[in-house]
């Protein structure tokens, strides 16, 4: 074993560093002693060194089990740069051909290789197990160990098989490492790897150099991100999106707006992915757009911002992804765009999975929503989630601390919550407690006869948002805790029981508003609506005038959300007008001239400085579905047949058709309407829209007094808009 005082010297010789960070030295000493070691260290804390240095100092080859092919390549390249011998580090995974694998095995057997990276899938192959049995192994390292736990943010079933395979190959000391693990996940990892007695090294999860912010997600999200990137020109950034499709689309939009960006997701072929990763590392591009689902194995120290286009499905995922920012201790800004409907979408993706898995997924989404909506210091909330307390209430480096909301006394409210939890014998979750306090007679409450309890309806004077804030902040303050083992049942702590006997002041901050109803109204980040009321009113008058002159309803010309967007971004050319939601090339050409002239005059007369980021260049809509629908309509294929062949409900097809005509494309569906509708019915509905001031569907159903089905009204509205507006 290497003497302790030589360790720093070995660090300098092998890696060029003068000193260890945090508890790296203690961890390495533990590994060198042959002890099982559990390392909980945030991204950027230097986890890799904890197994890289011991591997060089111990006899044999260290086996590193890692889920990310990209990360393996990255780390192998880094190790080779530190050494004069290329064979010092290798990886075995599905990206290698037979000749390359033979070369790896030859280097290992000749004793040249100190570090071998293996994907868990490769580790399970019989031929690899057979080969590794004949190799002198110094120790095993399980990187990204949170993948073992169903409560971790990137659960991999194959990680559950690591311990049995290690036993099969040959027992050696084990080091497990993760950047994100709640106490529940930590326990899961140790239990599954059979290392409950391991020495645990836990670093603080606080990253003081990171700034956290959550913004409401509006229709201007593309513009906001482009403006942000352009104001940080030359700096490296990562943007996370929910789907591969959105990654591709948004990377194209960034490129169209003069930003050097590339896409990165699991669906790309490995060569393209490696090439894009290298371009980012070599600073040939400034921005990588990536999927949340695919953990990026990019160890780049100077990423200056991480933007979440969509919220991730767990706070662990969010923490790890934001942790890619500012790894060198320099500036790191973490901005997330939040709309609750994104989390609802994620919940839908879970349907069809086992019930227990769905329940876990739901709990993780609730934690994410709570983080996004809270007005409490974001650092405090994040650290509490990982079982760590933060001594200061105001970190001075998150949106909530820089714009603090007033705190209000909630001693009585907390007493009410604690009383409800006790009355229900600590056997229910947050949403159930809130329904009980609000007096909501949901089926579950009635079946337990809890509507007969004294606490039922005792909180009707407050709304759901306030009760959520009380419960969340009571957990941070230590009065309540969630029993994670039992899917988040609320339990009272000893401190909570003391509060019940002797209540003390308890102040809360009300949660932030994320009003879904306003999503079509352009909003400036954090401020109220930026619509210019005078211009909006003038454009409504112009629309009315044109409506009379052209004898078409006002909504046929431009809908209200389009006018609101114009009164926010001030388009003064027909090209700029086409970037307004709901305005295609046809509409701009047909109705736009007078509107842009009015806007130009208004801007000049009032000396208005237009937003610098006014023009977000869009890329052509590549939707194969829309193109396919239009082509089939041109061939007069029945609409129900088009829906069927595209796997759509008929209502979903109508959604697509409405999007097509609202954007200014003309389609002719007369052949289908004439087949399925009575001519008089069609004319009645058509005449209604001709005379109406609005194209609102519910209003139409009400006015037409239920004589026609919703599908009939929508079909005729599509025909009407196509003929009159396009």
Strand content: 5-15%
| CATH superfamily (homologous) name of the largest domain | P-loop containing nucleotide triphosphate hydrolases
Strand order of the largest sheet: 3-4-2-5-6-1-7
- Using the coordinates above, name the CATH class of the largest domain: Alpha Beta
* Overall shape: globular
**In CATH terms, what is the architecture of the largest domain?**
3-Layer(aba) Sandwich
What would the average pLDDT be, to the nearest integer? 86
Number of helices: 34
> Total strand count, please?
17
- Outline the biggest β-sheet: 7 strands, parallel
Kindly summarize this structure in a few lines.
Helices cover 48% and strands 11% of the residues.
Please outline the helices and strands:
Elements lengths: L3 H12 L8 H9 L4 E4 L8 H9 L3 E5 L3 H14 L6 E4 L5 H12 L5 E4 L1 H4 L2 H7 L4 E6 L19 H8 L4 E5 L4 H10 L6 E4 L7 E7 L4 H11 L4 E6 L2 H13 L4 E4 L5 H12 L5 E5 L11 E6 L6 H8 L9 E7 L1 H10 L5 H19 L4 H8 L13 H4 L4 E3 L1 H13 L6 H9 L4 H5 L16 H14 L2 E4 L5 E4 L1 H8 L5 E3 L23 H18 L3 H4 L2 H10 L4 H4 L7 H21 L18 H11 L4 H7 L4 H13 L7 H7 L2 H13 L5 H7 L6 H16 L1
Parallel strand pairs: 1-6, 1-7, 2-4, 2-5, 3-4, 5-6, 8-13, 9-11, 9-12, 10-11, 12-13
Antiparallel strand pairs: 14-17, 15-16
Which key terms come to mind for this protein?
726 residues, alpha/beta, Rossmann fold, Arc Repressor Mutant, subunit A, seven-stranded parallel β-sheet, six-stranded parallel β-sheet, 34 helices, 11% strand
């Amino acid at each position: 074993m290497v003497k302790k005082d030589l360790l720093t010297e070995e660090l300098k010789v092998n890696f060029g560093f003068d000193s260890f960070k945090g508890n790296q030295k203690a961890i390495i000493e533990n590994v060198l002693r042959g002890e099982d070691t559990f390392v909980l260290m945030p991204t950027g804390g230097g986890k890799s060194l904890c197994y890289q240095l011991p591997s060089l100092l111990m006899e044999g080859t260290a086996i590193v089990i890692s889920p990310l092919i990209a990360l393996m390549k990255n780390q192998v390249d880094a190790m080779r740069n530190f050494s004069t011998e290329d064979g010092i580090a290798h990886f075995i995974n599905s990206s290698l051909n037979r000749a390359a694998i033979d070369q790896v095995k030859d280097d290992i057997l000749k004793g040249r290789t100190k570090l071998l990276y293996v994907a868990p899938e490769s580790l399970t192959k019989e031929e690899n197990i057979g080969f590794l049995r004949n190799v002198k192994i110094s120790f095993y390292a399980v990187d990204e160990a949170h993948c073992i736990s169903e409560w971790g943010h990137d659960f991999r079933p194959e990680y559950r098989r690591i311990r049995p395979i290690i036993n099969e190959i040959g027992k050696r000391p084990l080091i497990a490492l993760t950047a994100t693990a709640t106490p529940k996940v930590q326990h899961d990892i140790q239990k599954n790897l059979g290392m409950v007695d391991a020495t645990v090294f836990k670093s603080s999860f606080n990253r003081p150099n990171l700034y956290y912010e959550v913004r409401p997600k509006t229709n201007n999200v593309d513009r906001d991100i482009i403006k942000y990137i352009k104001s940080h020109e030359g700096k490296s950034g990562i943007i996370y999106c929910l789907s591969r499709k959105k990654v591709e689309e948004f990377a194209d939009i960034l490129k169209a707006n003069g930003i050097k960006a590339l896409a990165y997701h699991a669906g790309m072929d490995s060569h393209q992915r490696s090439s894009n990763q290298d371009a980012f590392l070599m600073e040939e591009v400034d921005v990588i757009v990536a999927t949340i689902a695919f953990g990026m194995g990019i160890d780049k120290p100077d990423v200056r911002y991480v933007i979440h286009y969509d919220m991730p499905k767990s706070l662990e995922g969010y923490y790890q992804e934001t942790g890619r920012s500012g790894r060198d201790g320099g500036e790191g800004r973490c901005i997330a765009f939040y709309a609750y409907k994104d989390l609802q979408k994620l919940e839908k993706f879970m349907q069809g999975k086992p019930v227990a898995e769905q329940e876990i997924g739901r709990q993780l989404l609730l934690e994410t929503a709570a983080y996004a909506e809270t007005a409490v210091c974001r650092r405090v909330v994040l650290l509490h989630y990982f079982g760590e307390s933060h001594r200061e209430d105001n970190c001075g480096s998150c949106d909530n601390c820089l714009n603090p909301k007033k705190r209000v006394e909630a001693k009585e409210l907390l007493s009410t919550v604690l009383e409800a939890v006790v009355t229900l014998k600590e056997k229910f979750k947050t949403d159930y407690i809130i329904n009980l306090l609000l007096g909501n007679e949901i089926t579950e409450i009635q079946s337990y006869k809890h509507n007969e309890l004294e606490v039922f309806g005792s909180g009707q004077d407050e709304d759901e948002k306030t009760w959520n804030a009380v419960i969340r902040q009571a957990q941070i303050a230590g009065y309540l805790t969630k029993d994670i083992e039992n899917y988040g049942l609320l339990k009272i702590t000893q401190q909570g029981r003391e509060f019940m006997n002797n209540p003390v002041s308890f102040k809360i901050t009300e949660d932030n508003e994320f009003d879904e109803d306003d999503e079509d109204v352009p909003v400036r980040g954090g401020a109220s609506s930026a619509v210019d009321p005078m211009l909006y009113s003038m454009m409504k008058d112009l629309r009315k005038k044109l409506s009379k002159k052209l004898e078409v309803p006002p909504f046929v010309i431009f809908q209200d959300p389009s006018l609101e967007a114009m009164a926010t971004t001030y388009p003064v050319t027909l090209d700029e007008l086409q970037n307004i939601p709901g305005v295609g090339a046809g509409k701009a050409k047909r109705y736009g001239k007078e509107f842009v002239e009015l806007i130009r005059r208004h801007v000049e007369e009032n000396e208005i400085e237009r937003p610098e980021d006014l023009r977000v260049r869009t890329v052509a809509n590549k939707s194969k579905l829309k193109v396919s629908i239009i082509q089939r309509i041109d061939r007069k294929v029945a609409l129900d047949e088009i829906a069927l062949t595209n796997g759509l409900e008929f209502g979903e097809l109508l959604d697509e058709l409405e999007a097509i005509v609202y954007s200014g494309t003309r389609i002719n569906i007369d052949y289908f309407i004439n087949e399925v509708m009575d001519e008089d019915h069609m004319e009645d509905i058509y005449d209604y829209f001709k005379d109406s001031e609005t194209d609102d569907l519910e209003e139409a159903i009400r006015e037409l007094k239920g004589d026609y089905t919703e599908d009939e009204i929508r079909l005729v509205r599509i025909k009407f808009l196509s003929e009159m507006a396009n």
